[in-house]
Amino acid sequence: MRVQIVSRAGVEWEGDASSVVVPSQEGEVGILPGHTPMLALLAEGTVRVANDVETHEFKVAGNSFVTVDSDLIYIVVESATVAA
């Protein structure tokens, strides 16, 4: 899957992933290849993007949402910082 995390400042992170977990307003949502298309509002929390080598974690805040379509995932956030 191809993932982009985008804020007002531009692309915060972009890369390939085998799984993504986002903090939706209804609870955490796991996204794997072939996921059904969706659009969801996000809550403040941590986005986890994993591939075969590493996992990236980002703290997201503000008005945010995620879209999934054809193994393309766009996470649009007000702000994103790398989680420690």
What's this, in brief?
With 84 residues, the protein is an all-beta fold. The protein has strands at residues 2-7, 10-16, 19-24, 27-31, 38-42, 45-50, 55-61, 64-69, 72-76, 79-82. The chain contains no helices and 10 strands.
Low-confidence stretches: none
Question: Termini, distance in Å?
Answer: 24 Å
Fraction of helical residues:
under 10%
Question: Please, how many helices?
Answer: 0
Strand neighbour order, sheet with most strands: 2-1-9-8-5
Order of helices and strands: EEEEEEEEEE
The radius of gyration is 11 Å
Whole-number mean pLDDT: 93
Largest sheet: 5 strands, mixed
Structural class: mainly beta
Number of strands: 10
- Give the strand content: over 45%
Shape descriptor: globular
Helices, strands, pairings?
Elements: E1 2-7, E2 10-16, E3 19-24, E4 27-31, E5 38-42, E6 45-50, E7 55-61, E8 64-69, E9 72-76, E10 79-82
Parallel strand pairs: 1-9
Antiparallel strand pairs: 1-2, 3-4, 3-6, 5-8, 6-7, 7-10, 8-9
Provide key terms for this protein:
single chain, 84 residues, mainly beta, 5-stranded mixed beta sheet, 0% helix
Detailed description of the structure:
The protein is mainly beta. It has strands spanning 2-7, 10-16, 19-24, 27-31, 38-42, 45-50, 55-61, 64-69, 72-76, 79-82. A five-stranded mixed β-sheet has the order 2-1-9-8-5, with no helix packed on it. Strands 4-3-6-7-10 form a five-stranded antiparallel β-sheet, with no helix packed on it. The protein is globular. The termini are far apart.
